[in-house]
Amino acid sequence: MKRKARFVIVGSGWRASYYLRIAKNLPDFFEVAAVLCRRAEKAEALSKEWGIYATSSVSECIDMKPDFVVVAVSKNSGNQVALEWLDRGFFVLAETPAALNFEAIEKLKKLSPEKKSRLIVAEQYRLYPENTAIIRLLESDLLGPVSALNISLAHEYHAASLIRAFMKIPAGMKFFVRAKSYEFPTVETLSRYESFKDGRIANKKRTVASFEFQNGKVAFYDFDSEQYRSPIRKNSLKIQGLRGEIIDRKVYYLDEKNEGKESEIVIERRKVHRKTENPNFKEFDEIKKITFEGKNLYEAPFGLCGLSQDETAIALLMQKTYDYSLARDFCKHPYPLEEAIQDAYMAIMMQSGQL
What is the pLDDT of residues 157-204, one digit of tens each? Predict the structure, then answer.
């Protein structure tokens, strides 16, 4: 029987906590060997909170010889810290983005083939249950070739990854982008750590952009900075193909007789409640199964284990990273570096290509 994956987490913030929750909920699959913190005081507090080993010693973590190292530090430090752990000879699962600027992208491009193979960027959005189901439905060719989409699901590099997955845009394809950002007053409702009921108002950023790809396909991007958490800013998706379109969960298409049909992507879910003070994790839906006209598009890879869509996607990426670390010659790379570089490049160009 294959043993569970042992990993070290570098970082102790918001994103690091996702990996801790996953390991707690899936103890047969994952084991946290240690969490590396910058300060001994933080390590001690984290150890008490989670019941895991935490340290401020890099050498201790190296000596543990984990199967892979999760780099979950700040965006500004992520690229450099990931390279440091690659230099130490480890497989690295690095939080997004792969890079924040062209200089960092060039560093990644110059890595040796061996280091490139050991770097996995944690782009999990394609592995979200709902996104997985949509990708599989598109692969069935029900809609025919996809030519255009409107996406308001995720920001910047995450959106770039989804755009390319939904439209089958390969890494490296040339594109032209137009973009503009606005600020609008919005009632704040929820941050990463607390909810607001006092009606406070703040200016929030909204970015709209259009991507025109070399093969003629077009993507329209629209995302609000409040969208991930606010109950008054909702996600939306429209994908248009030769023979039909998807609008959120509704599917409109032509059958074999070229007669118009309407159907719906069906999601089986259950409500999960957690004992936590953080409103983001107190209650959420866990997805069990997704079908379309009786055909299975998605089934929970770990069974029902109390994980959100985001956590499920990350857990699946962790499992793929572990399998790849054991048998690179027989396993597909979880997310090739050229893909992650393209996501980062599209995000940078969207920011710099503002009209």
Answer: 999 999 999 999 999 999 999 999 999 999 999 999 999 999 999 999
Contacts of 305 (CB under 8 A, 6+ apart): 25, 26, 286
Question: From the CB of residue 284, how many other CB atoms can be counted at a distance below 10 Å?
Answer: 17
**pLDDT on residue 315:** 98
Measured CA angle at 132 (ends 263, 13), to 5 deg: 135
Whole-number Å distance between alpha carbons of 296 and 293:
9
d(CA 29, CA 191): 31
User: If you search the block for the tokens 């598109």, which residue do you land on?
Assistant: 138
Cα separation, 342 vs 72, whole angstroms: 20
Is the distance from CB of 307 to CB of 62 less than 8 angstroms?
no
pLDDT band at 1 (very low <50, low <70, confident <90, very high): very low
Residue among 129, 94, 114, 123 nearest 267 (CA): 129
> 204 forms bridges with which residues in the sheet?
184
Work out the average pLDDT over 20-47: 97
Looking at residues 294-314, what average pLDDT do you find? 97
pTM score over 0.85:
yes
Q: Cα dist. 143→89, 230, 253, 265 in Å?
A: 45, 32, 6, 14
The 8-class DSSP code of residue 327 comes to -
pLDDT per residue as tens digits for the range 76-123? 999 999 999 999 999 999 999 999 999 999 999 999 999 999 999 999
| pLDDT above 70 as % of the chain | 99
Give the tokens for residue 127.
Answer: 């592995």
Region for residue 303 given its phi and psi (left: phi exceeds 0; alpha: psi -120 to 50; beta: otherwise): left
Q: What is the dihedral of CA 78, 83, 86, 87, to 10 degrees?
A: -140
Closest CA to 263 of 276, 251, 275, 271: 251
Cβ burial of 74 (10 Å; 0-12, 13-18, 19+) is: exposed
